[in-house]
Amino acid sequence: MSKRKFGLALSMVLAAGTLLGACGTDKAKEKEGSTSTPKEDTFSIAMVTDTGGVDDKSFNQSAWTGIKEYGKENNYTKGDGGFDYLQSKEDADYLPNFNKLVQRDFDLIYGIGFLLKESIEEIATQRPDNKFALVDEVSDLPNVASLMFKEQEGSFLAGVAAAHMTKSDKIGFVGGMDIPVIERFEAGFLAGVASVKPELKVDVQYTGDFAKAELGKALANRMYSSGVDIIFHAAGGSGNGVFSEAKERKKADSNAYVWVIGVDSDQYEEGKIGEDNITLTSMLKRVDIAVKNTADLAAKGDFPGGEVTTFGLADDGIALADSRGAIPQDVLDEVEKFTKQIADGEIEVPEFRAKK
Amino acid sequence: MSNRFVNILVPIISIILGLLVGAAVMWFSGYNPVMGYIALWNGIFGDMYSIGETIRQISPYILAGLAVAFAFRSGLFNIGVEGQLIVGWFAAAYVGMAFELPKFIHLPLALIAAALAGALWGLIPGILKATLHVHEVIVTIMMNYIALHTVNALIKAVSEGGYKTERIHPTASLRSDFLSNLTDFSTLHYGIFVALAMVAVMWFILEKTKTGFELKSVGFNDHASQYAGMNVKKNIILSMVVSGAFAGLGGAMEALGTFGNMVTRGGFTGIGFDGIAVALLGANTPLGVIFGASLFGSLKYGAGNMPNEAGVPVEIVSIVIALIIFFVASGYIIRVLLSKMKKKKEAK
Q1: Nearest partner of B265 among B187, B342, B123, B154, judged by Cα
Q2: Do B29 and A21 touch (CB under 8 A)?
Q3: Taking residues B155-171, what's their average pLDDT?
Q4: What does the pLDDT average to over B117-121?
Q5: Which residues of chain B does A211 touch, with a Cβ-Cβ cutoff of 8 Å?
Q6: Structural element, H or E, at residue B97
Q7: Is the pTM of the predicted complex or chain greater than 0.90?
Q8: What is this model's ipTM?
Q9: Domain A151-285+325-343: homologous superfamily in CATH
Q10: Do B340 and A2 touch (CB under 8 A)?
Q11: What is the CATH number of domain A39-149+288-313?
Q12: Which residues of chain B have a CB within 8 Å of the CB of A21?
C-alpha cells in the first residue's frame, strides 16, 4: 500500500514538474547551436542584466536586442566566442556574473543599468586588461566605457504629446526607483507638458521598484480613478502593471479614454486589447543602438574606454515610437517641431526636477 | 534497520530523490540534466573563485538561520529576521562610512552597531509579546516593512538625496587581500568566521548557561516555566533581542563584506525568509544551521552557473533547486515510509 502511494506521489511530482518545465521551452529554441568554437579574429560580447531579467520588455531586453543584432551582423552564434547574456536574480549576483563572463573570454562585457556600477568598477579594477561598458552610469576607469542617454529629451516629446492628447487635463507619471536616470524622465516629461499647458499639474508617483507590476497597477488604478487619462511610465517591469490596469479599463468599457505611454522599447504590443490598443506611443531609449555602436567601435579597435558617450535625439539614441494612428497628424507635427528644436539645441531640456 | 542507519539513509535518499526529480524536469524541458548538474557542481566547487563565493553566500545564511532557530527554541516564530537584517545592514554601512577609526576599533564597532540595530528591531515585538500578548508573527512581519522603508528613507537622508550610501572605509571592511587573492578575486570575506563564532555563542548560551536552560524551558512550556519560578516575560524579550542581534550581524555581512555599502531596496533581500527554511532544515540546532545554510548557500550560488555553463534557463534552475530543497525538507515523509516498510516486513 505504502509503496503504491509513494509511487503515486512521485509521479504527481514528476507531472507537476513537467508542466512547470514546459514554460521554458520557447527559450530552448534560442539556445540551439550554442556550442561553437571561438574563432581567431572574432570580437565577442556579452552582457549582465540587472535584476529585471533579460525579458523585462524594456531596458535589458533592448540591450539584448542590440547584442543579438551585432552577433547576427557578424555571423556569430550564442555562446563562447560569440555573444551571450547572464541574468542577475539579486544584487549579489552581479559580480560573480561578470567574473563568469570574464573567464569565458568575452572581449567586451556590458553591465546593463546603474545598479551595476559598483560591481563593474570592482571587476574592471581587478581585470585592467578586459573591456567593459556600463549603461546609465558614469565610470572614470580607463577600461570602462560609459553609455548615457538624454532621457529628458524623449520624455519632453512624450510630455508634449500627452498635453495635447489629454481630455481631462490630468496626466500621470509612474516612475520606478527615484534615481538620477528616472529623474531625467520625470523632469523632461514635466517640462514637455508645461511647454504646451503650463498650468497643468502632473501626478508624479514612484513604485520604488522596477520589478513589481502589482505596485504599478495599484498606482495606475488610483490615477485613472482620479480622472487621469494618460500615464507615462518609466518603471521597467513595474510599468507592466500600468498596462494591465489600462487594458482592464478598456476591456470593461471600450469607449474609455485611457492611454499609456510606454518606455525604453516600443511597447505597442503590450497595449493590445482586442481591436483596441491603449499604447499612445513609447519613449524609445535605444539601448540596442548604444550597445551595438560600442561593440562596432571596439571591434575596430576604437573602444571608447574611460569616456562618456551620450545618446540623444540628435543621434537617434532617443526617439518617440510610431503611434500607429493614436496621435493625430497635427499633434505629430507639433512634436516634430519640438524634436527639431531640441536636436538643434534651441531648447535645453532640464535634467533635474525643479527644486520645491 | 537500526536507528542510526535510518538517520544517515534519510538525508541521502532525500537528496537523491530531489536530484532525480530535478533531472526529470530538465530532461522534459529539453536540457541535458547531466550537463546541468555538472554545471551546478562546478558552480559550487569548480575553482577557488566559486568556492570563495559559495562560502561568502553561506555566511549571512548561517546568521539568519541562527536568528530564526534561537527564537524558535523559546517557542517564538521570528519572521522578522528579514527586517532585522536590513536595519543591521544599514547600521553597519553607516558606522563603516561615517567614522574614521583604527581597524581594531572600527570593525568591531560596526559589527556591534549592526547587532544592536537588529536587537532593537527584535526588542519591539519581544516587548509587545511579553507584556500585551500581541502575536510576534504579526508584529515581526509588519516590522519588516517598517525596516525596509525606514532604511530606504535613511539612505536617502545620509546620501543627501542619493540612492546609496558611500562606501565604507577600509578600516571597517571584512574583506581582505589575502582571502581575495587566495580565491582569485572572489568577494570572500572574514564574515564566515563571525558567523561560525556566533554558532558557538548560540550553542554556549543554550547548552551551558542557566539563561539558556530557561529560554529552552520557556519554549517547551511557558506555564510550567512560570510555575517553576522563571521570569517568562524577561526570557521572551531576551530571546527576541538575541535573535535580532544575530540577524543584524547577518546584515553586517552584506554591509562590511559583500557590498561595502547599501543601495535603496525595492523589495526584501530574501535572506531572512530563507533563514526560516535554513533553521528548520537544521532542526533549530546550532550545528544543524551550519548544514542548512551550507545547503542553501551552495545551491543558491552554484545555480547561477547552470545558465552560464549548461544553458539551462534561470526559471528551470529555480524549479530544480526548489525541488532539491523540498525533498531534503520532507525527509520526515521518507522516514515514515521507511518505518512503514519495516513494519510490513516484520508483519510478514
Answers
A1: B154
A2: yes
A3: 90
A4: 97
A5: 266-267
A6: helix B81-98
A7: no
A8: 0.79
A9: Response regulator (3.40.50.2300)
A10: yes
A11: 3.40.50.2300
A12: 25-26, 28-29, 316, 319
